[in-house]
Amino acid sequence: MIRVGIVGGTGYTGVELLRLLAMHEGVEVVTITSRAEAGRRVDEQFPNLRGYYQLAFAEPDPGVLASCDLVFFATPHNVAMQLVPELLAAGTRIVDLSADYRIRDAALWSQWYGEPHASPDLLAHAVYGLPEVNREQIRQAQLVACPGCYPTAIQLGWIPLLARGLVAPEGLIASAASGASGAGRQAKVDNLLSETAGSFKAYGAAGHRHLPEIEQGLGDVAGGPVAVTFVPHLLPIVRGIHATLFARLLASPPDLQALFEDYYRDEPFVDVLPAGVLPQTRTVKGANRCQLSVIVPQQRDTVVVLSVIDNLVKGASGQAVQNMNIMFGLPETAGLEQIGLLP
Length: 343
Fold this sequence. Notes:
Helices cover 30% and strands 20% of the residues. The chain is α/β, with parallel strands linked by helices. The chain has 2 domains: 2-125, NAD(P)-binding Rossmann-like Domain (Rossmann fold), CATH 3.40.50.720; 150-311, Dihydrodipicolinate Reductase, domain 2 (2-Layer Sandwich). The longest helix has 15 residues, at 149-163.
């Protein structure tokens, strides 16, 4: 039985971890932290968990966390990097859902997050937790940086094309839209129902923090620099990401449908839809699954890939559990076989 701690249990990714781990037969959650809610029972804050947990939220205690086999950080940036060095020194393995260890270049991280990195020496040791690319490194990792939601959907869409050198790496365009839960659980006027319902808008068009992560990951696959134009949007839904990806083909394309199907044939959480079927966010809601389709409109020189995920599952907590399963030699699908919710 894997003894697990969760730092940051009151946000959407924290409660999603609790939901998924409640059905995982190989895991015991022994502590979950929240400074604001310390002493309050978890099932008082989240009644959907009644009967599954007897825990109360606790103040973060490095000694208690260090006694765990693995600690998830479901926190904003700049929290994990304060505690991770001490936990790693104690032999505890880490899956960080924040952005603290996703970018290998400390100066680049500081440029996008506006502060110095507290443990830059660990950046080179963190394994980027996209299983479809780094599964073997994840197996031995002590520190896994779980990918962001937009980067997961976008990279999984482009990876087969870049890995085969079929598209121009300098002209990639991603237009992607997320449900409101992607902004977190804190109160913001822009995320109120009355502000988002019946509306659709772009944000972060001049530059979004997920861009360097996307370019770093795709560059690793392409074997050299890539340049991505990334514009995120806010959807008037709670969960889901829909990414529409454009790239210029370098030659007459092979059978791209067969290419994608073959590339992801053995991936349990990537589903390449039949030719002509386009993915919808509703079909992956609640599931640790990315659904993809690939088309070449009018048979010209632009390929379009459509990619959908649930931003809280494959885009965050589900992928974190997937990483944990790999790290501890468990079946990769353990605790993650939920089917998407319809309607």
